[in-house]
TrEMBL record:
One annotated GO molecular function: ATP binding
Membrane as UniProt keyword: yes
Protein name: Phosphonate transport system ATP-binding protein
Record CDD domains: ABC_PhnC_transporter (cd03256)
Biological source species: Metabacillus malikii
Amino acid sequence: MTALLQVNQVSKQFGNDAMALSNIEFTVNEGEFVSIIGPSGAGKSTLLRCINRMIDTTSGDIIFDNQHVMKLKKKELKLTRTKIGMIFQHYNLVHRLSVIENTLHGVLGKKSTIAGVLGLYSQEEKQQAVKLLDSLGLGEFMYKRADQLSGGQKQRVGIARALIQNPKMMLCDEPIASLDPNSAKTIMDHLKNISKTMGITVLVNLHQVDVALRYSDRIIGINSGRVVFQGTPNTITKEHIQQIYGSEADDLMIDLGDIHAS
Ligand SMILES: Nc1ncnc2c1ncn2[C@@H]1O[C@H](COP(=O)(O)OP(=O)(O)OP(=O)(O)O)[C@@H](O)[C@H]1O
């Protein structure tokens, strides 16, 4: 197993607030599907944002694809970010643009500013966008405005936009938090398929423990900015859930028997 991402003793403090992350330490291997779970405010989003340096850590080291992310200069950071696709809870699409234009935005990180501003995409890039949208079941919506789509469709555009970068890793920040159960399942199935068939590493923040248990190769549980569990879904116990979620654990009503049996 080859490590693609190493998070070493990472801490983050916003101003003089309490530590949002404290000495976070874990490794994600190439092709792995890893979920980060924890209660609201545990630090899940902050952690993902540190990994692609949307925010800077206060201390610690993040190594992605053999690069020390915190030490990268502007150009190198731009290049590294093209290897990390990101999808968001609220999709972050450009509403007035079509599905295919939103998808093509994913290649902007690799282009000069001028080419990007003029929307100059190569034939190959356009073909790739069409192929991706077809594979995500969005072929017939290609020229529809993004704001005319359902939430699940918008998130699939988000996935297409991330995949067109040819990323090594996908960071997914609460990708199903705004979706109904059916759409959520479709999105999770696509993410799992991406990891299995394309070998892309997936690191996903989730609120839904049952979903994390069902889809992940490994789970990282965080509480108050600290890792309190790391392991495969079949090793997680009620006590671990309690450590991760504290007093909220009883409301989660997770049947570990079902998960461990499947
Ligand atoms: N830009 C910021 N400035 C100040 N504090 C912040 C900022 N971003 C996050 N925090 C704080 O850091 C802590 C962790 O927040 P974060 O959003 O990472 O948690 P989370 O686990 O993703 O929560 P949720 O599941 O509700 O999205 C919280 O106490 C939050 O208030």
